[in-house]
Amino acid sequence: MADRDQGDGGRGAARPPHPTESGPRAVAARVLARVWGSEAFASAALDAELRRAQALDPRDVGLATELVYGVLRAQAALEARIAEFAAKSRWTTDPLVRAHVLMGAYSLCFLDRVPSFAAVSEAVDGAQAAGGPRVGAFANAVLRRLAAAVESGGRPPLASAVVASAPGWLRGALRRSLGRAAAEAFLSAGPVPPPTGLCVAPGEDRGAWIETLRAAAPTATFEAGCVSPAAIVARGAGDLRRLPGFGAAWIGQEEGAQALAFALGARPGEAVLDACSGRGNKSWLLSRAVLPGGAVDAADLYPAKLSQLRAALGAPPVSAEGAGAEAGGAQGGALGRAAASVRETYAVDWTVGAGDVPEGYDRVLVDAPCSGVGTLRRRPEIALRREADDLPRLADLQVAIARRAATRARDGGRLVFAVCSVLREECEAVAARLAAPADDGLGVRLEPAPFDAELARELAGGGDAFRLLPHVHGTDGYFAAMFVVRR
Ligand SMILES: C[S@@+](CC[C@H](N)C(=O)[O-])C[C@H]1O[C@@H](n2cnc3c(N)ncnc32)[C@H](O)[C@@H]1O
């Protein structure tokens, strides 16, 4: 067991940081505490902590990552195991103590490569550094008993713990949407965290870019994606902005998200509205698909997102703000220099009206706000934050946004409704409501129609909707439905 005398925080300026402050478990504990204590996303909090912990080697980075995602996904099952030996109130008040105890339990139950004595020792050191000697002694007693129980009873399967840890409402909603076996496969689908998606612009040679990227980052892996013809799947690539071609020939975009943009079927010369554009990831792909001669406009509720979009995609100032386009931005000026751009941006709340957005678009993409349940393996904190009551509220919002955005399409124009959810309440149920006659006075009908883009036609099996699933397609989970707009 490690020397406890050193586990009491950072006294002495010249002393190098002890692993209880700077090791992979300390990094993971701080991330978990931030996720529990604020609205932090696990991946962003982990990135930030890892940037501060430059001394960690790749193995330690891997361990910190596994501990964060593992604890968040299996949290309820781990807490239930610990509850066999200690009341929750004794170890959950301080988030860092809680993190170290849960990481110790995770290591004991699921990490073959960490011997039991080391798992207990590391967790006790961390708990003691956070809560003092009595907390350390408590953690030691509890985790030793758990270690003995795991030794005699065997290691439980991680997949079962992850399934059992999902909130009851979510398990139920997934079973109703996908069936029991698929719901469990969805919940336990790996890899966790999933690889990074890159989206190569139409007209660029994906194979050539894979070779270029492999040469530029030899320790990373780059493979062609299986679903999107534009996707490169990267592992260990680090900061994408440092790689050749970023922002001009390709951007970072999850493979399934690319499929949603392709599903719209935008063609050269067409006028396209990205009605919930956010920062413009799908606008980027669409703006290339309509070349030559077409145009993409982008709309969103939040002017700040549109500002970022304009900075990246070289669009003129937002009509509702009248502000000038900023230079720079996450994807730099490179996107702005590329041939395609977004023509106009509109700040609009579709639940209230259509603002300044003109009519007559050939195609409208409604990438609607949703529960985000489809991205659960990438964002495990979603299970902690969403509630059953969110679903009807989100479904109403999705219907309102899609109906109003449809009024901007020309007669016979196409609309794709898409969400990064796999729950029926936000998928088929919303598509059915959109297809039903409405007496909202908006003067449009939405007719379900087969997709006209090849990729989406294949995914939908010739039908008018498709679902992407991590355990089937290797992407995040999504739903898309195609409509023809009639006036
Ligand atoms: C799923 S996100 C879109 C992501 C984006 N298309 C992308 O590819 O990065 C949904 C977007 O809808 C926007 N939104 C939410 N409510 C809205 C409303 N009432 N009117 C317009 N946009 C809204 C959000 O700001 C958010 O950017």
From TrEMBL:
Spans annotated as Disordered: 1-24
Active site per the UniProt annotation: 420
Keyword S-adenosyl-L-methionine: yes
Stretches assigned to the SAM-dependent MTase RsmB/NOP-type domain: 186-486
Keywords recorded for this protein, A-Z: Methyltransferase, RNA-binding, S-adenosyl-L-methionine, Transferase
Ligand binding (S-adenosyl-L-methionine): 300, 367
Listed Pfam families: Methyltr_RsmB-F, NusB
Methyltransferase in keyword set: yes
Family affiliation: Belongs to the class I-like SAM-binding methyltransferase superfamily. RsmB/NOP family.
Protein name as annotated: Transcription antitermination factor NusB
Organism (species): Sorangium atrum
